[in-house]
TrEMBL record:
GO terms for cellular component: chloroplast stroma. Transmembrane segments: none annotated. PROSITE patterns: FATTY_ACID_DESATUR_2. This is Acyl-[acyl-carrier-protein] desaturase. InterPro entries: FADS-2_CS, Fatty_acid_desaturase-2, Ferritin-like_SF, RNR-like. One of its GO terms (biological process) is fatty acid biosynthetic process. It holds the Pfam family FA_desaturase_2. GO terms for molecular function: metal ion binding; stearoyl-[ACP] desaturase activity.
């Protein structure tokens, strides 16, 4: 939980200092997808251990696409990304891109079935 607080506050400060660069960097990171450190898991036998772990976690509902969208929606809201003004056209495109998790989260919440990453 401490790392979440640290990352959240660091990005908040970056938005204060340079909103244009921060919104561009954040959108770029989201386009490239975040890789969890656990993707390096290896038990000496299964080269696809993380993929198998991830599949089980998703089927059990431990961590699903809805959870991912909820986290992104929370962070984008916390950082008030949609309220940033004075961005270049490229910055506004990045800002729009960062609004997609909110749309995805709303769509997933309206579904009756589970959707997985």
């Amino acid at each position: 939980m401490r790392h979440e607080t640290a990352y959240t506050k660091i990005v908040e400060k970056l938005f204060e200092i340079d909103p244009e660069a921060t919104v561009l960097a954040l959108a770029d990171m989201m386009r490239k997808k975040i890789t969890m450190p656990a993707h390096l898991m290896y038990d000496g036998r299964d080269d696809n251990l993380f993929d198998h772990f991830s599949s089980v976690a998703q089927r059990l509902g431990v961590y699903t696409a809805k959870d991912y969208a909820d986290i992104l929606e929370f962070l984008v809201g916390r950082w008030k990304v949609e309220d940033i003004t004075g961005l270049s056209s490229e910055g506004r495109k990045a800002q729009d891109c960062l609004g997609l998790p909110q749309e995805l989260g709303g769509w997933l919440r309206g579904q009756k079935t589970r959707y997985f990453l």
